[in-house]
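Workshop exercise sheet. Pairs work together: one partner reads the sequence aloud, the other fills in the structure field after running the prediction. Swap roles for the next sheet.
Pair: D.N. / O.F.
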Amino acid sequence: MADLVVIGYPDEATAEKAHEVVSQLEHDLIMHVHGAAVVVKHADGQAKMVTKTGTTRSGAIMGGFFGLLFGLLFLIPVGGLILGGLWGAVLGTMRGWGIKDEFRQRAQDVLKPGTAALVLFLESWTEDKALAALAPLGGEVLKTSLSEEATKEINAALEADKDDGTPAAPAS
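Structure field:
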């Protein structure tokens, strides 16, 4: 079962530092991060997403995936981020995630104008060690677990597109 974690910070620099800590935790095998991004909401209310998964094809796929996720969580327009069949695969997958409205509302409340959030899609992690390593940075941590079925569907959609360029259809 995968987890979706949103950590709210007072500024972009702190969220970027948290991402560096997460990278070290992944190197130390405390976390297996399937995707990470920093979302910043400027004082004027405009939001931007900085995907941290790299510039490879897989990174572009995760960028689109996170674009949709952020659009749903933070109400950020994501029109140009999802292309082709991946749109349908990810939309179909999202229906089965079961992310509650309460989590979505709390995620929106964490991202206030002038703040930032680190969003992680975690395949696995040693939660107590990870949170202890991130604690010196402060922040508000929100976590929700995704069902086994949803995790498998997300991974299948991402892996199929990475392997052959053909998006996987979501399981029904």
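Discussion prompt: The chain has one domain: 3-164. What would you look at next?
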